[in-house]
Amino acid sequence: MDRTSIKKWFKAPDKMGHKYSLWAVYFCTGCGIIEVPPVITSRWDAERFGVIPVATPRQANLFLITGYVSLKTLKAIIRTYELMPDPKYTVGFGSCPINGGMYWDSYNTIKHLDKYIPVDGWISGCMPRPEAIFIAVTHLWTMIDKGMATGYIKYREKYRYYRQNQEKLFGKLEWPPLYPMEDKNG
Amino acid sequence: MVIKAVWIIVLPIIAFIIGVFFLGLSRKVIARIHRRYGPPIYQPVIDLIKLMNQKSISHGRLFDMGVILSLAGSIVLVLFIPFGGIAPLSGSGDFLVVLYLMLLAPLGVALSGGEGANPNISIGISRKMMLSLGYEVPLLFSILAVMTYYKTTSLVEITKAQQHLSWGVIYLPLPAIAYFMILPAMLGIRPFDIVSAPQEISSGPSVEYGGRYLALMTVEHAFHTFIVLALFVDLFLGGGNPFTFFVKMLVVFLLGLFIHAVFPRFRIDQAIKYCWKWPSILALAGLVIAYVVA
Q1: Residue range(s) defining the domain that contains residue B61
Q2: Number of domains in chain B
Q3: DSSP letter at A54?
Q4: What is the pLDDT of residues A24-48, one digit of tens each?
Q5: Angle of the B212-236 helix axis to the B61-80 helix axis, nearest 10
Q6: So what's the ipTM on this one?
Q7: A59 touching B (Cβ < 8 Å)
Q8: Per DSSP, what are the bridge partners of residue B81?
Q9: For tag attachment on chain A, is the N or C end more exposed, with fewer CB atoms within 10 Å?
Q10: A37 CB near a chain B CB, below 8 Å?
């Protein structure tokens, strides 16, 4: 952890700020949210790494997709993701957002989350332990440091792909496109 | 004249540093009371740097202006409240000016929130106004008691009259207790954090603020914490030089924080009932006593 190195703070304050002040939007998509209360309270105290839950997407820059994603939830996830200010980071938590997990043949959950919103990292397991969240956070630090956590840029550049996938699932969406639909590499 | 101009620039910076220090300290102390390790004490600075570097979304001109009005009101207020004998803009009736200027910050938030058009903001603003309706009754009573006792409307005069350990809290114990009882409501901490209740109304008036707006609101909050504590120290704990002034502020803040760390939240009706009952009765009794004694 290089939180105390003054040199880095002067070199890239934006990067360091995004690294050590990850505010997670408190949004429960599935059963995985049960691992989050121990993480943010006394036992595993995520606040010592600067990770706190916030109640509104406008203030958040970390989105934990905790557990299976049903169709109804996906709509809310997309809207929440689009409300968050850039730069924003998404982490899929548990095996269900990765490939459907134990809901692989369910008619009402999606199998691959990264078709609908960009995901910067995954935590596998059913359920992952709370420690896995900290490992994910430290990985995310490394990725932000190296400029690899670029999901929000990908969303802007390939918005047409994501929007098409979303519309394939829901039919016509009730909200206008976030970015212009014509783009370079579809 | 030059010294005054320098203080006008330096005092808000001191207030900002102290306010941000208090924000960081509160997070650390609360964490330790919860038996957590807690964030580093400079965590609010990290948060501010992050928020300033985020892309922020505006909802219109009034949305921008309201935040700035709120912050400007707080900065002007800092110049009127003596900090360890330093009050660059003090005049003969500065206490009355302070009472009026204290309304600017919530007014700015209300203006800005109206543009945001989120139902949570409206609920938060109405709660804020209700709560200030609640705590301003005992606040005005205790302030009137202080004014009556010292026969002046100048904060500098009031502080000067309390030199050599003849603190206001010794001569006016009831208004001091009343002020301390409504201190959490003025600071917006538990048990009176009904305005920004994150679990009920998604942090209330600041629900649409992100990025730079939230940074400005955090700075405003730091100034507000400074103002409320400095007013208490000036009125009842005898001012002092800047260092002792800071120590007194710290003690008052920690006492408030211990209440914040262990108590749950009031409902809005309970909060108003509380504010209009015990602090009001104590402050009114204090006012009568001050009138008779003075």
Answers
A1: 2-293
A2: 1
A3: E
A4: 988 888 888 888 888 888 888 888 8
A5: 20
A6: 0.86
A7: yes
A8: none
A9: N
A10: no
